[in-house]
Design a protein that fits this description.
Order of helices and strands: HHHHEEEEHHEE
Number of helices: 6
Strand content: 5-15%
Main location: nucleus
Radius of gyration: 27 Å
Strand order of the largest sheet: 1-2-3-4
Largest sheet: 4 strands, antiparallel
Number of strands: 6
Distance between the termini: 48 Å
Oligomer: single chain
Family: Belongs to the Mediator complex subunit 27 family.
Shape: extended
GO biological process, one term: regulation of transcription by RNA polymerase II
InterPro entries: Mediator_Med27
Structural class: alpha+beta
Keywords: Nucleus, Transcription, Transcription regulation
Amino acid sequence: MEKLNSTLGAVRSLRSSVRQCFEQLADGTNAELAEDSRTKFLLKFQENFNNMNAQLREVESLINGLQAPQTPYCLGQTTYLAQETAPERQALYSQLVNSYKWIDKVHDHSFLAFNNLNQNNLRRSYVYCSQKRVRIPFTSCNNFDPDHTDKLLSEINLPLTSYQVCRPFGSNVVVIVTISRVLKAAIVCKGVLIEWVTVKGFDETLDPDDLWAESRYEVFRKVQEHTHIAMLHFFSPTLPDLAIKSYMTWLHSYSKLFLEACKRCGKFVSNGLPPTWRDLRTLEPFHEECRNC
């Protein structure tokens, strides 16, 4: 047992070193630092990497020195499960452990989702009234003439941005926006109101018939989450034309997604991602963890 405990301790130390090494690499270095600071960063990373290799060799030597136990470990009352003779029930213990882990994760995620949904009010309205609704005459902005939508999109002239308008769902328009050579976005509109946005990389296929398939790149999946937040922010049933133009201007700020450093920490990469958030007013780039600092 003493050899087993020392081996487990070496494995824990190795995991800690690996995590520390890759966290340093993911955080990167500040673009504004001098050449000496960058050299120190590389030397520190090389030192951590060599330390990790040494610990890996130590773990391998400790594992080779272990011997298989002569008697099975005592697992409490679950040892009686091994007495089951039916072949389809012999793996019951491992399945039971996986089921308990899955249930615990479901409880944790559902509790976090419940708290987040209670804190965030996503009503698309400026005024909320708890009294009984009264039906009043209202001209919906969802019933705009298709020519008006085409004219509105033609008035939005942004550099390095092209638009492709199609109508696979009848009168409702789908706008394929290509921003520089960075990304593509499919904007589904009902009238002149934005209902859904899908973001993919420039080298990916964005088919209007499959608008719910996510990008295979994590950075563009994160950008898509931010576009949904901006969609709710710029929603305005009273000024729909202005809302569309403001949203397109905000989306165009991603033309330098991989070229601008975070305004908060000054780094180009943090946790393996560039600054994926753009401020809704100033359009300045921020990492997701830096925008609320």
